[in-house]
Write a structure and sequence with these properties.
CATH class: Alpha Beta
Strand content: 15-25%
CATH superfamily: Phosphoenolpyruvate-binding domains
Largest sheet: 8 strands, parallel, barrel
CATH architecture: Alpha-Beta Barrel
Strand order of the largest sheet: 1-2-3-4-5-6-7-8
Length: 261
């Protein structure tokens, strides 16, 4: 099994930069994001339209690039987590985390014995369809695959030390939109209101040596939290890139036409 370059960078204290594919169904997106300089990409199965077959194909292509494929699964059920890892995802992000018991079950479902209870089939996407010694492969997979908790609930903030202290948790990533909803934050500048809660997560993650990150389209906030010590910097998504890129060009064309009329 190949080493996970994202894990190696995070262990070395480096920052990693990526985005999320929410609506794209073409494996081409990994090639484009590689050219854009992404270290990783989340393929979204929580809010995105993609089923396992589509995501498996997208992950396979991503594994041929420098973009590390991660998948946000829709829930913490065994079959939703284990199958995307079998397909070749180098890690998964699980949404709506709240309790230590939930995290312990996730770790068990996503790790092979003796750590957990995940069932094994070696020559699949996670091993690029190569054969390998059973015990050698499962030991490597337990070390290389990343289990990322998405912190986006008020209860998760309250329980954050219990969550990040579970052995087998490899990273936490904040989802500020859902966190604002969960905390009842209605202010337009909700990121500023959430700052104490976000800082609490970062402090707990640092205490337990767990890499921390955030997903937002606000570049200023990404830069600031990167400066404070967040390592997993997830910028925007495919829908926003398409919209903003098209709008920028169209607006310039219309402004030029008005100036020439």
């Amino acid at each position: 099994m190949k080493q996970n370059p994202l894990r190696l960078k995070l262990q070395a204290g480096e920052s990693v930069y990526g985005t999320m594919a929410q609506d794209s169904r073409s494996p081409t997106i990994s090639l484009l994001m590689e050219q854009a300089g992404c270290d990783f990409m989340f393929f979204d199965m929580e809010h995105g339209p993609n089923d396992l077959g589509v995501v498996a194909d997208m992950v396979k292509v991503a594994r041929l690039t420098q973009v590390v494929p991660l998948v946000r699964v829709p829930n913490d059920e065994y079959h939703l987590m284990a199958r995307v890892l079998d397909a070749g995802a180098r890690g998964i992000m699980i949404p709506r985390i709240e309790t230590r018991e939930q995290v312990e079950n996730i770790v068990s479902c996503t790790h092979y014995p003796p750590v957990g209870v995940r069932g094994c089939s070696v020559p699949k996407g996670h091993n690029d369809y190569r054969t390998q010694s059973l015990w050698e492969f499962t030991e490597q997979a337990n070390l290389e695959n990343m289990i990322i908790l998405q912190i986006e609930r008020k209860k998760a903030i309250e329980n954050i030390e219990e969550l990040v202290s579970v052995e087998g948790v490899d990273a936490v990533v904040l989802g500020p939109n859902d966190l604002a909803l969960s905390m009842g934050v209605r202010e337009k500048d909700y990121l500023s209101v959430l700052e104490p809660a976000i800082q609490k997560v970062l402090d707990a993650a640092k205490k337990y040596n767990v890499p921390c990150g955030i997903h937002t389209g606000n570049l200023d906030w990404l830069i600031e939290w990167n400066r404070r010590g967040m390592q997993i910097i997830t910028f925007s998504d495919d829908i926003s890139f398409l919209r903003s890129g098209a709008a920028n060009g169209m607006n310039k064309l219309r402004e030029a036409a008005k100036a020439n009329s």
